[in-house]
């Protein structure tokens, strides 16, 4: 089935950073605060962390085991590991469809970050602050995202950048890139968190994020937390499965999964520590503002904390948005890679031709998503704008469905010896709690996902 030699990641650090590069992105810095704000704050965070531990980690390890064992893209991996059992092949195909839909709306937001870094480069935020109008950042955001040509131009630019890196290949493109950028982003986030804590709404913001109000929990909140966990960890479409197919044999899968989930969760929580103090410091701003939250709250931090310092007030916004562009890029690359690897290996196309096809389809879908926020606002599905529908359908339903079947496949279908060999590198390293892990994989993760779905559908009385 495989015709060409597959690339390999060169170093273990590179593996963790590339996988974390896929996981860490707009999901942590844009979507996590948005969802936390809309779902009541700390109670959401608590359920989110439970979802990461009980559902996310077992599914992540499953993707790693399947990918490395099969040495193939997500769809081919199931064909290799379950020959003749056609029903499993749909997991890979579902992943490709889900990935295409996510990439399409994600790319729109990535385009916004690119616009914001260009705006910062031209000192735009400082100039906006001079107007003294407290709504200036909200107005800028609204007028940009509902525009027709500009956001589309940015999303096309972003998609082409992703395309170029995917075509360059695994090691040269992705690994080199992630090694440099991830640590830089992390440091800047810590600095910004420190700054946000000096704002007057800091205490209220921290209370919102860390002091749970359990009356806020309802089935929708639990579904959102599960969806956010899958989205943020890049699970359910075989993305980490595809990455693991490039892992070498001596990589410790358990450690890698813990490191990736740990880094990802830390970045999300730090993003919350940056955003909510700012939200509660700006008069009239609410945590429930949705997708604009990050794009409006952050310029307020820049203005309030660095306003009197000419160099910093110029440099910090630019650096932040630039790094956000890069964090988004490492995620868009990973989604593009899943789809490209599938098309090129299953349909025997060259990498370049496959990538070009994926890029073209995604540009068309992204454009529709972007226009649905403005000129095309009447294009709705189930009462949702196209952009919102793509987000809702993929994160809350399609990713967990993918994760459910991946857990079932690894837990019930794959030979136990394969699981053991993959987790212990054929007995050469230790893996503590294999039985507990099997229990999580076979029972807790699939049943947990199922119960959350049934609860949301109103078929349970929780
Ligand atoms: N995990 C990425 C983020 O948090 O930004 C988004 C993502 C990447 C989702 C890859 C799914 C995926 F397969």
UniProtKB/TrEMBL annotation:
It is a multi-pass membrane protein. It comes from Bacteroides eggerthii. The chain crosses the membrane at residues 12-30, 42-61, 90-109, 152-170, 182-203, 223-246, 258-280, 311-333, 354-377, 397-415, 436-454. Its main location: membrane. The keyword Transmembrane helix applies. It holds the Pfam family SNF. PROSITE patterns: NA_NEUROTRAN_SYMP_3. It is found in: Membrane. Keywords: Membrane, Transmembrane, Transmembrane helix, Transport. SUPFAM superfamilies: SNF-like. It comes from the Bacteria. This is Sodium-dependent transporter. PANTHER family: TRANSPORTER.
């Amino acid at each position: 089935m495989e015709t060409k030699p597959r690339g390999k990641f060169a170093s273990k650090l590179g593996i963790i950073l590339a996988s974390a590069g896929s996981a860490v992105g707009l999901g942590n810095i844009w979507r996590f605060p948005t969802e936390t704000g809309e779902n009541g704050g700390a109670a959401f965070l608590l359920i989110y962390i439970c979802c990461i531990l009980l559902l996310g980690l077992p599914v992540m390890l499953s993707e790693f085991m399947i990918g490395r064992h099969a040495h193939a893209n997500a769809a081919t991996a199931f064909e290799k590991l379950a020959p003749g059992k056609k029903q499993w092949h749909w997991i890979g195909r579902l992943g490709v469809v889900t990935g295409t839909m996510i990439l399409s709306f994600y790319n729109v937001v990535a385009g916004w970050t690119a616009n914001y870094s260009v705006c910062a480069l031209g000192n735009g935020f400082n100039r906006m602050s001079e107007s003294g109008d407290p709504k200036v950042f909200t107005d800028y955001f609204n007028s940009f995202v509902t525009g027709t040509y500009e956001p589309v131009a940015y999303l096309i630019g972003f998609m082409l950048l992703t395309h170029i890196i995917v075509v360059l290949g695994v090691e040269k493109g992705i690994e080199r890139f992630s090694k440099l950028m991830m640590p830089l982003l992390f440091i800047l986030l810590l600095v910004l968190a420190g700054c946000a804590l000096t704002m007057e709404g800091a205490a209220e913001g921290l209370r919102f994020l860390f002091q749970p109000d359990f009356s806020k929990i309802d089935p929708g909140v639990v579904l959102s937390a599960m969806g956010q966990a899958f989205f943020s960890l890049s699970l359910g479409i075989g993305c980490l499965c595809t990455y693991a197919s490039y892992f070498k044999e001596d990589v410790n899968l358990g450690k890698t999964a813990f490191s990736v989930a740990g880094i990802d969760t830390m970045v999300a929580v730090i993003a919350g520590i940056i955003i909510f103090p700012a939200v509660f410091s700006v008069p009239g701003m609410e945590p429930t503002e949705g997708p604009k939250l990050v794009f409006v709250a952050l310029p307020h931090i820049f203005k309030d904390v660095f306003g009197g310092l000419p160099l910093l007030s110029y440099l910090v916004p630019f650096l932040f948005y630039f790094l956000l562009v890069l964090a988004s890029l490492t995620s868009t690359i990973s989604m593009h890679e899943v789809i490209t690897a599938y098309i090129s290996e299953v349909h025997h196309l060259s990498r370049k031709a496959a990538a070009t096809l994926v890029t073209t389809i995604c540009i068309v879908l992204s454009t529709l998503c972007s226009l649905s926020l403005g000129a095309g606002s009447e294009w709705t599905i189930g009462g949702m704008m196209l952009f919102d529908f793509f987000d809702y359908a993929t994160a809350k339903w399609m990713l967990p469905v993918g994760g459910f079947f991946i857990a079932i496949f690894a837990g019930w279908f794959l030979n136990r010896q394969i699981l053991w060999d993959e987790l212990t590198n054929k007995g050469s390293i230790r893996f503590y709690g294999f039985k507990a892990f099997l229990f999580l994989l076979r029972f807790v993760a699939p049943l947990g996902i199922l119960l959350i779905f049934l609860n949301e559908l109103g078929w349970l009385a929780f």
